[in-house]
Design brief:
The complex is a heterodimer of chains A (about 750) and B (about 450).
Chain A: H1 2-16, E1 28-32, E2 38-47, E3 54-58, E4 64-68, H2 74-81, H3 88-116, H4 125-140, H5 150-162, H6 168-176, H7 182-191, H8 194-208, H9 225-236, H10 241-250, H11 262-265, H12 271-283, H13 302-311, E5 315-318, H14 333-349, H15 361-368, E6 372-376, H16 417-425, H17 433-446, H18 468-480, H19 485-494, H20 509-514, E7 525-526, H21 529-538, E8 548-549, H22 552-559, H23 569-581, E9 585-586, H24 619-622, H25 640-648, H26 650-655, H27 662-668, H28 677-686, H29 692-705, H30 712-731, H31 734-737, E10 738-739
Antiparallel strand pairs in A: 1-2, 2-3, 3-4, 5-6, 7-10, 8-9
Chain B: H1 2-6, H2 13-21, E1 23-24, E2 27-28, E3 49-55, E4 79-81, E5 88-90, H3 94-98, E6 103-109, H4 116-125, H5 138-146, E7 156-159, E8 178-180, H6 198-218, H7 222-239, H8 242-245, H9 254-261, H10 265-279, E9 283-288, H11 297-321, E10 328-334, E11 337-338, E12 350-351, E13 355-361, E14 368-370, E15 372-373, E16 380-382, H12 387-398, E17 406-407, E18 413-414, E19 419-421, E20 428-430
Parallel strand pairs in B: 3-9, 3-10, 6-14, 7-8, 7-9
Antiparallel strand pairs in B: 1-2, 4-5, 6-13, 10-13, 11-12, 15-16, 17-18, 19-20
Helix pairs in contact in B: 2-7, 4-12, 10-11
Classes of the chains: A mainly alpha (about 750), B alpha/beta (about 450).
């Protein structure tokens, strides 16, 4: 290979010569390798991208050599980085090469194994037959799948980026588009749409366990609205991922002032659990067991756990007594109680409280949440457990914060141990931080991670992954993209690997465990509960993102109200009334959504805007929406209650199928020619047109029940019914529920 | 996907499909591997079923099972005799006082936390809430330890609970209790939508199968197959008699019975629980709220307390009539009691230091009180009982092995009534102990 000789030549050059400064070329500069050797050369450009990127250098003798960017000094890497291609197509091309190489390598390996199988003496014939079957199956999964057609791509990309299927109009627009770049254009458009923020919010909210009421064991009066908006805003603005993580870990104050505080407040009073959760979510590392004893399989000692926990040992989530929160308006403890008593007396005197009541409970609970805030109080509360049994510490002993892997942390450089911890976690040099992010994001796009399970990446990877080279490439790419989540997904979705058809066979658990699924295509997945719900929403309106939750500003104003200025019972009552409006959904025009905006009594709005999570028994929960109690607690397994909801529930029997339903009235009867009714319904629900057989089956319902004596109106009704049946049947197919 | 991955080495994929396919109402019907046999010791193991009444909000002990009339904290509540010398119940429990020989009252419950969710979690699971794991509640524990009781009916059902029930915890969704919101409505969406007759339903299914044919032919994927089997199972279930079990309106003399049970949510819950237990369901929880009486307690208690009294008394009567009383444990629990001190709003606040629970049937010796609080009902004076002991008592009655260690998918060991290390043997043993005095 050509490159190898270039490598060789360059290393010889670096080893043998130190260039004199007198050989000054016009744009020549001094290049330094990571191990300190130098060379004068002119920058010509780069080849490849990510981890395999090469810098093209023009030597004094005009020859051109390629040198791996990864082997350059930090300063030179930065210089090159500015000139690296961030063009998604180029990066996607690199990924595709790595995917195909791995598939090939694996295919040939399996082929050789198959050839050698008959000669194997240590296997019985039965074992050989079984192994043969396995090998053949795996070989089949080493052949790249066919490229998706436009319909398949369209449906999948909408589900993956926008979190729902395309509406009829969106589908038509794309399918009628003749542009050669229409796929890349659609990816860009969707990444910049509000729908992407909703979709990613659903993902993060399952990871961070974002729920209304915020605090896991709280009474539910702390509102999540500002925190939820913070997450969505970060996605919309494409805040770099590492920056968001740092903010979640360092936010100080009350949630309505510092919304990112919601992350730590979720585990209020459960400091050690929060640490475990942070490791799982941001570093793909499961250390929970080290809370009580040394980790049985990994090099994590109980002492390590407490040294890590000690970083967060000064962090409190409650303000006690009269601890000042900085701003004079932030009252807590006694002050709030006195204010509530004063306002309650106003209400009591005006006859607004019940006979035996003297304190307004609502005010007490709502204003009581002012004492919930993240702050560092300077005393470290973390100590070894009372039953600590190893000889490197005593029970109840205080431990100093330190990290058991990654960079050594110098506490003196930071304002608090917590800040030091946050910087350590979200650092590009943390060996697990970026890997965890790209592993999880890859899974989001391809349905299976490079390393499973995602919450437990081995401390020493040793090449374990479905495609280790690719994983390393993705890690480097994430860093090169400065942790832009949008750009990262932009690249993934532009790969041919993603744009292939879904794998028809399911990878076996052994295959996943051994890392031998190499992505001939994404795997077939059941939609998440939110994707199902949001797709149903998309079947009821032309604009599924019209209704949003936007009460966070009102909430902040409410919590910051100087209640001492409320002098009359009426003013206090108005203040209480204002609370009721905070969680309300609004339309584009800022108007509150009312029951009139529901469809047949059902709140058909995006899942990310509804209650978090929805109550038990709601359609979303039935299909697996996380209860937000544990990390990644959503599920996609089926159950009879789900099937019954689809067969007999309001949504399939009324919301989507009554004669007034959007799909029937506006789409089937309202767009284009009446003759294409069935086509329009198929395109709306399954993002494809019917086969001729399907079409005639669907139409037989209409023909069978109309006759010549009927009025036009009656015929229309019969037709509406028949279309309703088709919609019911389509939503009940497996094709609808699964992401191809 | 996640659950399967978690069980990577415990359950092969093929077994998984078999398992999901053979479930009805979302609950596995296969016996759980490693199920142990009943532990029969000292009067325990008689309860084949359990009906667990959970009073959400924190049931006031002083207005139910531990009245302190005439003391400074007793409030307006009077006591009424039970037939047992020196034992009175509160006046709002007249029927239970009358039938006191059937029930055993525990007055010395004590709890660590005064927040609703934390307290409820302790009572349901014997464990402190953690943000890294959900521990299972008693119904799924029973199924895990004893195997499935009925071939097609779910092993546990929870009636009227909100969203915070720990359910099957780390046992996974397959063992989750079937939730019923409104006892009068039964299983959600179990019948065809109104106006959809059998012909139409069949016609729609035909359409569905035609439309789905090409997809199912292409993707012979385990997850897809499992869904198709769920469709088949569900269609069978819709036609089966099992569904009638959940339909309270099919009860003989429904109107009269509903009246007798008090026409309340808790009364209807009790009626349905009895119907389910008669049909073979092992564990039914009936959750009833309205007990968080911070305000105006004496305005609320006649109704809330009265409904409970009537529901429990009628249930005991009916179970006896059907010969099920000795086989069915009735338990009453709550997250904590309420402060003896009456607050500014004429209510009582959260009081985890002491509270009351009740047991009946299933091998329990009635007509007794266990434990004692002080004069003001402020603290436990004799025989403290923790939530772990409470669950150990239920387990003992049902013949569950208290010392059976079950490992969560993460590899952490758990026991149904909490665990601790035996310093002598260094083995993991149950931390909760049954109240043996309740068993004869």
């Amino acid at each position: 290979m050509k490159t190898r000789s270039f490598y060789h030549r360059l290393s010889l050059l670096l080893a043998g010569f130190v260039f004199s400064t007198s050989v000054a070329l016009a744009e020549s500069r001094t290049w330094t390798s990571a191990d300190g050797k130098t060379l004068e050369a002119e920058f010509v450009g780069t080849v490849g991208a990510g981890a395999s990127a090469m810098v093209k250098l023009k030597m004094a003798d005009d020859s051109i050599i390629n040198y791996p960017v990864a082997k350059l000094s930090e300063a030179d890497r930065l210089f090159v980085k500015g000139n690296l291609p961030t063009d998604p197509a180029a990066l996607a091309g690199e990924i595709d090469k790595l995917v195909v190489n791995k598939l090939k390598e694996s295919y040939y390996g399996l082929r050789d194994e198959l050839a050698a199988l008959p000669g194997k003496t240590d296997l019985s014939n039965e074992e050989k037959a079984k192994r043969k079957e396995e090998i053949e199956r795996e070989m089949q999964m080493c052949i790249p799948n066919d490229p998706t057609n436009d319909n398949q791509f369209l449906r999948r990309i909408y589900l993956d980026i926008a979190g729902r299927i395309p509406t009829f109009d969106e589908a038509e627009e794309f399918l009628n588009n003749r542009s050669a770049t229409k796929r890349a254009d659609l990816i860009n458009k969707l990444l910049d749409s509000p729908a992407f923020a909703m979709r990613m919010y659903n993902y993060y909210s399952d990871l961070f366990r974002i729920r209304d009421g915020v605090v896991m064991m709280g009474n539910g009066d702390l509102r999540a609205d500002p925190y939820i908006e913070y997450i969505k805003h970060s996605i919309r603005e494409d805040k770099p991922y590492d920056e968001m993580v740092t903010e979640l870990l360092t936010a100080t104050g009350q949630l309505w002032e510092e919304p990112a505080a919601g992350y730590l407040l979720a585990d209020s009073g459960m400091r050690l659990c929060n640490l475990s959760n942070t490791f799982t979510v941001f570093m793909g590392t499961e250390i929970t067991c080290a809370q009580c004893h040394d980790h049985p399989f990994e090099e994590v000692y109980q002492m390590d756990f407490y040294k890590m926990a000690s970083f967060m040992g000064e962090t409190e989530t409650r303000v006690r007594g009269n601890q000042a929160m900085g701003d004079s308006m932030m009252m807590s403890g006694g002050d709030t109680r006195a204010e509530v008593a004063r306002m309650s007396k106003l209400l009591k005197d005006a006859g607004k409280l019940r006979e035996n009541e003297t304190i307004d409970n609502n005010l007490q609970q709502w204003l009581g949440t002012r004492s919930i805030a993240v702050h560092d109080d300077g005393t470290n509360a973390v100590e070894l457990p009372h039953d600590y049994k190893y000889d490197d510490g005593e029970p109840n002993m205080k431990v100093k914060p330190s990290a058991y892997f990654g960079d050594v942390v110098n506490l003196e450089e930071y304002e608090s141990p917590r800040e030091a911890f946050a910087v350590w976690v979200a650092s590009p040099s943390n060996p697990r931080f970026t890997i965890n992010a790209v592993n999880r994001f890859w899974k989001l796009a391809f349905g299976l991670a490079q390393i499973e399970p995602v919450y437990n990446i081995p401390g020493h990877l040793d090449g374990q992954a479905q495609n280790y080279e690719l994983l390393m490439f993705l890690e480097e790419m994430m860093k090169d993209l400065d942790y832009s989540v949008k750009d990262f997904f932009r690249v993934l979705y532009n790969t041919q690997a993603y744009q292939r058809e879904a794998e028809t066979l399911s990878p076996t658990l052994t295959q996943i465990d051994k890392g031998t699924y190499h992505f001939p295509g994404p795997i077939l997945r059941r939609m998440t509960a939110e994707q199902i719900w949001d797709s149903l929403v998309a079947l009821t309106t032309a604009d599924p993102e019209a209704v949003t939750r936007s009460g966070w500003q009102q909430y902040r104003e409410w919590m910051n109200t100087d209640t001492t200025q409320l002098k009359t019972a009426d003013e206090v009552m108005a203040f209480k009334e204002a609370w009721r409006d905070i969680g309300k959904l609004t339309n584009y025009n800022g108007q509150y959504v009312s029951r009139d905006d529901y469809v047949d009594g059902v709140e058909m709005f995006r899942a990310s805007e509804l209650r978090q999570p929805m109550p038990d028994g709601h359609f979303l929960r039935m299909f697996g929406q996380s209860d937000k109690q544990l990390i990644e607690n959503q599920f996609t397994e089926g159950s009879s209650p789900q099937v019954m909801a689809l067969l007999n529930g309001t949504i399939t029997n009324k919301v989507l199928t009554s004669p007034d339903a959007y799909l029937i009235k506006e789409i089937a009867m309202g767009r284009g020619s009446k003759r294409d009714n069935i086509d329009k319904i198929f395109l709306s629900v399954l993002t494809r047109y019917p086969s001729s057989e399907e079409k005639s089956m669907a139409q037989s319902g209409m023909r069978a029940r109309t006759n010549r004596d009927m009025s036009e109106q009656q015929k229309l009704e019969v037709e509406a019914d028949a279309i309703g049946n088709v919609i019911w049947a389509l939503v009940n197919t497996r094709e609808f529920l699964f992401v191809q | 996907m996640k659950d399967q991955l978690r069980n990577l080495d415990q359950l092969s994929r093929r077994q998984f499909v078999a398992r999901t396919a053979k479930t009805a109402l979302g609950v596995s019907i296969l016996p759980i591997a490693g199920a142990s046999t009943k532990v029969l010791a000292a009067g325990g193991g008689k309860a084949e079923h359990c009906i667990f009444f959970y009073m959400a909000g924190g049931m006031t002990h002083m207005e139910t099972f531990d009245p302190k009339p005439g003391t400074e904290t007793g409030g307006k509540t009077k006591g009424i005799p039970t037939g047992v010398a020196g034992v009175e119940l509160a006046e709002y429990m007249p029927k239970l006082a009358k039938g006191f020989k059937d029930i055993a009252v525990v007055r010395s419950m004590t709890q660590q936390t005064g927040d609703h969710r934390g307290g409820s979690y302790w009572m349901h699971t014997s464990y402190q809430p953690r943000a890294t794991i959900i521990h299972p509640s008693m119904g799924p524990w029973a199924q895990t330890l004893l195997g499935k009781k009925h071939e097609t009916l779910p092993d546990s059902v929870v009636i009227g609970a909100g969203g915070n029930h720990p359910g099957a915890g780390f046992f996974g969704p397959a063992l989750a209790p079937l939730p019923i919101g409104d006892p009068d409505k039964g299983v959600q969406n179990a019948r065809p939508y109104s106006g959809v007759d059998e012909d139409l339903f069949e016609k729609r299914l035909d359409l569905m199968n035609t439309f789905d044919e090409s997809f199912q032919r292409k993707f012979k994927n385990d997850d897809v197959t499992a869904y198709t089997q769920f469709y088949e199972e569900t269609l069978k279930l819709m036609k089966s008699e099992d569904l009638d079990t959940f339909d309270l309106s099919r009860e003989d003399n429904y109107e009269e019975k509903a009246r007798r049970y008090g026409n309340s949510r808790v009364g209807k819950g009790a009626m349905l629980a009895k119907r389910l237990v008669s049909a073979g369901v092992r564990f039914v929880e009936v959750s009833a709220g309205g007990w968080d009486m911070h305000n105006d307690l004496w305005n609320a208690i006649p109704n809330t307390g009265g409904s409970l009294d009537q529901a429990l008394a009628s249930l005991i009567e009916d179970l006896k009539a059907e010969g099920l009383f000795e086989k069915t444990l009735i338990v009453l629990g709550t997250e904590f009691g309420r402060t003896p001190k009456i607050n500014a709003n004429g209510g009582r606040d959260h009081h985890p230091r002491c509270f009351s629970t009740m047991f009946a049937g299933g091998g329990i010796t009635g007509g007794q009180v266990y434990g004692k609080t002080d004069k003001l009902a402020m603290a436990v004076e004799e025989n403290p009982v923790t939530p772990k002991d409470f669950n150990a008592t239920i387990a003992h009655a049902m013949g569950l092995d208290l010392n059976k260690v079950v490992y969560a998918p993460s590899g952490r060991p758990f026991l149904l009534a909490g665990h601790t290390h035996d310093p002598k043997t260094n083995e993991i043993v149950s931390e909760g102990h049954p109240i043996m005095e309740l068993f004869s």
